[in-house]
Design goal:
Keywords: Plasmid. The protein is built from nine helices and 14 strands. With 308 residues, it is α/β, with parallel strands linked by helices. It has two domains: 117 residues, Rossmann fold (3-Layer(aba) Sandwich), CATH 3.40.50; 176 residues, Endonuclease Chain A (Endonuclease, Chain A, 2-Layer Sandwich), CATH 3.30.870.10. The strands form two sheets. A nine-stranded mixed sheet has the order 6-12-11-10-7-8-9-13-14. The protein has a five-stranded parallel sheet with strand order 3-2-1-4-5. Helix 2 runs parallel beside helix 4 and helix 6 packs parallel to helix 7. It starts with a strand and ends with a strand.
Amino acid sequence: MLFEYAVEPRAIGSSWQNFRYLIEKFGFDRGRLISRFPGKWEREVYAAAAQMKPIERARLEIALAQAKQTKFIRSGRPYDAAHGTWFQNAAAQHAISPFHAIIAEQNPTAIAGVVTVDEVDEQHPLMVSAHTWEVERVGTTLAVAMRPLLTSAKTVLFVDRFFDISRASYQETLKACLDVINASGAAGVRCEIHYCDHDKRPPPEFVEREAHKWIRGVLPTGMSFVLFGWKERAGGADFHARYLLTDVGGMNVEAGFSAEGAHQKVQLGLLSLDLTQSRLNALERKSAVYDLVDPVLEVRSDGSVHRI
């Protein structure tokens, strides 16, 4: 699962030992994400590290820069320095819109949901994050489970051998996911759908002619997605596993993106960063793993379809 944590800048930045120990606990592949609370959280950490040795502070700065892509998530919560300390702000927001947990140097008022630095380990109940779990096969439920990836990525790939934008079951999940991206306020997110070509799939000309009907009410204004069809190579890798792949991390979607109803469950699983990148590489336009079926089609929210 993907959980959001508020991490006190002073707690993680108080020493190189604390920073190194805590930062490695987070990432889209670990199921734990550091909330950017406040919005300039990294700057607060760097300021808290003022007493470190110069070489340690330099290492911290590099590590923070590297962590931006795979360990942080936008908070969206207000932060008011006039309200008090970081801990007081975090506690106030936790009461309104809870983090999974708050990690802090101390917990002076014994607030539930706070883990002190000394208590942090993989076995602490608030630090446990299952790497595989099940959710109902409902579009909005799938989108909620995928939200941290969808709202943090610049590139999003829906990979499903049978993904078919003409079917309502796929439209439901696609709409829910695109709505999440749109609501996050992220601009310029590239969305792609990758599927395996087969004899029963309609030809590109049919998709070009009919897509405007299928995506009505699915694509938020100003958004688009790109359709990639692939063929397996004789003696090569199969195109079977279903994934949500992004530039910040990925997950396996065992039964695929089709919304079949709450009576069915789909297993989700976090991918390692290396595996995510390997799967992204396999789906590049000049793939060395599969054969691309031309043309590649971009479907826009106004209903127009373009060969790209």
